[in-house]
Protein 1
Amino acid sequence: MSGLALAGSNRSHFWRVFFIGGLISYRALFYWISPWQYIPTMLGAPLFQILFFVYLGRAAGVGSTNFFVVGNSIQICSMAGIYGMTMAIANERSFQTLSPILATPSNRLALFLGRGLPVLITALQTCLFGFLVSALLLDFRPSLPDLPGLALAVLVTSASCTGFGMALGSIGLRVRDVFLVSNIAYFLMLLLCGVEVPIGRLPLALQAVAQLLPLTHGIAAGRALAAGAGFLSTVPDILLELLVGGAWAAAAYLLFAYFERSGRRSGAFDRL
Amino acid sequence: MTVVPAGTEAPSRVTDRTSIRYTPLPLSSSHPAASALAVEVHGLRRTYRTTTGTLRRRRLEVEAVRGIDLQIARGQLFGLLGPNGAGKTTTIRVLCTLLLPTAGTVRVLGLDVVSEAKSVRRQIGYVFGGDRGLYDRLSAYDNLRYFAELYALEPSLLRRRIGQVLEVVGLTGREKERVEGFSRGMRQRLHLARGLLHDPPVLFFDEPTIGVDPVGAREVRQLISELARAGKTILLTTHYMFEADSLCDRIAVISKGAIVAEGSPSQLKAAASDRTVVEVKAYGISDAVVESIRSLAGVQSVAMEVSDQAQLLVVQVSDADQLTGRLMQLLEGVRVDRIATREPTLEDAYVALVTAA
Ligand SMILES: Nc1ncnc2c1ncn2[C@@H]1O[C@H](COP(=O)(O)OP(=O)(O)OP(=O)(O)O)[C@@H](O)[C@H]1O
Ligand SMILES: [Mg+2]
């Protein structure tokens, strides 16, 4: 029980907390991880959502298959991004594990951001599933040369949704019923981000809001790429999506850091 | 061709090594040797702001700790006793860097808990009572694994160390099970294991035996004295007086946010040695009778415990011979089962202190 060495360098500590810690806390806090939850929630519901909108669009003669498939297949990453990330941070509160965690000297940035990686992978996986079933069942045929670009757009959008979810997670550390906020955010994004309704049809104020939300630019890029517009023309949208996601992630971390400091002042940790 | 990779590789390895060599070890070089005290608390105050009411919000200020001083020497096992809401947990959470003091200075191993919080965190283990604060959906092993990473345990030592702490708390063989299936006592053991992972020199135990069965609680006490023997500094809170009596080198009694007595268990008992305890087991003692006993001259304190239908009246008196007669008069008409006098225990000393405060 004596002379226990601590890990070699700060850098290795950072990455271990980021990767290993992130994965462990994801398993601890992401409620939908069991197959009984995962399959219906993360695969079943998105599948029916895609089918519903594509058939609705076809029946009503509005929008193309491409429009609805790309919009919905990318949008479903926000399931994991928003709900998953909210859980992976805010559920610390329901387990009352925030105190023991914050009593450790661990690197806070790694502790916080590490939770995003498993969520991001989950998000990517749901998008991949969405595109695959669309190709199989709905005759979705994206432009092959732009497929890597489409993959990049999906990756960036999933990451930015995850960053946005982090912000909700941070709020959940302080607010009791953050899942209400997550629900509203999820459906608001479905409405505002050009998933089912072209952004141009929205009132101007809402169009402005959409620019600040994840999904908007990523879906625009994805649609262009699926139609074979060429990667270069979508670079601005991809960068904007990245910027939006990065800004939300940064805000999320700052909020977390702020809550840690103000929590020490107010004594609010682990108070339900 | 081979020069380039070798040349670029070699220096980076060397720097890696030196950085490993300079890694602080919790028990040797890392904590400042300047202070002989493990814990120094000067004039600690802590208030909480809360609000009541949903519509008409009123601000409330709770003074949880009102200016306490504490000094705990290295290697000491220090007990903090006090009634519910006295400010024990508040004090411990300030020491654990989870709460900022409203006023006063607090140092752990010479490190300031506000300005050097991160260094303090490396040196302390925090164990609290109750069954929350664990990841229910993870196994015991993964719970510990997570915290081992957060405490930056050397990866090569990690598995062995987790095995060690599981062994120490007696959870070996159960580590693969999910914590949601753990009993209260098992959860408490896991809390303890987690607090020991990084082998901190200073340990804070906030009611570590709460909800643990008698045999388990005895094991926890054994573990605590084992840790004290290994040279750890321990601050312990408990509501079980015999626990404090048998474990602690020193005890402070805190009541309503202030320290009302401090000393070794025998010193505290000695403070109550000028009195005798009269215990009356009876049925149907009314509150009015209790009040009139309390107002008798020479009565230091009156406490009543109720078990089944029987009442146990514990009266601390300065002169038993003189007061027993008066007591019997007051208890006329009450069915008295047994009346006995005895020497005060630590619990009596404690009751006297906190009822006087
Ligand atoms: N987070 C908080 N917000 C507001 N008030 C608090 C908070 N934590 C504690 N208090 C108040 O501070 C006072 C001291 O509480 P504390 O938890 O330190 O007592 P304690 O001695 O640990 O009691 P117990 O023996 O019941 O655990 C109480 O009046 C309590 O209501
Ligand atoms: Mg307490």
Protein 2
Amino acid sequence: MNSNATTLTSGAAALAGGLDVEAIRQDFPILHQQINGYPLAYLDSAASTQRPVQVIDAIRRYYTHDHANVHRGVHTLSHRATDIYEGARETTRRFINARSTREIVFTRGTTEAINLVAATLGQRLGAGDEILISAMEHHSNIVPWQMLCEQRGTILRVVPINDRGELLLDEFEKLIGKRTRLVAITHVSNALGTVNPVQQIVASAHARGIPVLIDGAQAIAHQAVDVQAMDCDFYAFSGHKMCGPTGIGVLYGRESLLETLPPWQGGGDMILTVSFSGTTYNELPYRLEAGTPHIAGAAGLGAAIDYLQKIGMEDIARHEADLLAYASQALGEVPGLRLVGTAAHKAGVASFNIDGIHPHDIGTVLDQHGVAIRAGHHCAMPVMERYGIPGTARASFAFYNTRTEIDQMVGALRLAIRMFA
Amino acid sequence: MSDKTTSLTELYRQTVLNHSRNPHNCRRPANWDREAEGHNALCGDKVHVYLGMRGQALADVSYEASGCAISLASASMMSDAVAGKTESAARQTIDDFIGDLSGLQPGKLEGELAALGGVRDYPSRIRCATLPWQTLRAALDAVQETVTTE
Ligand SMILES: Cc1ncc(COP(=O)(O)O)c(C=O)c1O
């Protein structure tokens, strides 16, 4: 998957994928600090990315000059706030190539987006109806469906994965059936890095008339996403995993399907008229956005998307593929290290275990050397169960990472091995 | 670099590493009088403590554990430290240990347990060290009928 795989020699000077990473890093103030006496190597972007000044400034500018409530005021600031909020919606629509802003629902994040679908679409489901997920889902694409199953007698079916962490498509074809009412599958696995063939999954489900929700949390900042080309019915993602603020996320929904959903939370903004003799609901997407929204979050998200697009999603994907190939090779040379998740089609996630060293201890030793990774089950306990391990250490990459940072990690890992040997 | 290596060797002292590599009393016994299971949801550490009582004394202290070096070493040292003690003396040892690491009453760690003192400088790791002890306390609190593996 990586055209540079044969030239992975130099550690330091990587301008792979044509990105000027040093210039990009100047936009990220947080990256320029010492942690425990070492330069920070932030390799935990799958948990949350960092933000460039462009995003931080957009939020500051909004609160400094433009804040008021949206969709209500007759005054200038309210108009400005509404323009910023709705402008971010249009920016988001363009970014994922949705047909209309009516299809862009702002939420708190991926988790809330999936819960929204479970709580609304779920009302149509009954005992014996099935929801099909995969064995590599994040807890946020498991638990909402389990809750629905408890409430309505719905049945959760799980597509297994192979040892490399790839979805077993023939099993998918066997499990999808007459009672399947929704397929909900991750685009990219946060624990394994696997990129799923979402287009193929959608085509197969649609051939049976079944809608598909894609959890895009780990894909959105790492490759170009086109919801029309993918043809999915829902696509969920989080601002904080794409250089935007926490507390804002997006549910894309196909308009014809969103229109059939009952209202979710009730309150202001989602209504047209309220009377004790009956209430009428607003149009999409407002019908699904009750209450004062996270306006500053939307402002930051819009700025984050502008920033990502300025760099270019293709270049980002190419740079991260180079980092993954470089890291996989370097980690592969560490004695006793085993990569968990070796799918043929992978995103910038390297999950691993080292013989005789618990992931938590790896995390502490790396942190003492300035390297931030995640250790644990990564909110995907069924994945850990599948591999019979309590957890993994996980390095994950973004476009602002360098080969030097990977070298720093690998050096610290070798030290850990000497310590624990 | 030497600074940080020093600080890490304070956390992972030789005694701690030795216990984590060869934990003492790490087994599921044939019989026990009390038990409790502890789980650290953050990192997935698990420990299951089994107590064999003789009168008021903790005659047999064993456990099954899966976790990081700190939690394994702590469980191992704990089983050595409280074995043979009366219930009230064991409770005192638990309070001293947790009180010390949480910073409430520093300077209470005695003998080998002092080797775990480096954990104080690693707030995210304190729970790893205290998990076995909290589980032991839960086992003491929960007086149960004898359970056997038969
Ligand atoms: C694949 C995947 N889905 C969903 C989520 C949940 O995202 P959030 O916590 O932002 O709602 C995450 C975050 O870790 C994720 O990696």
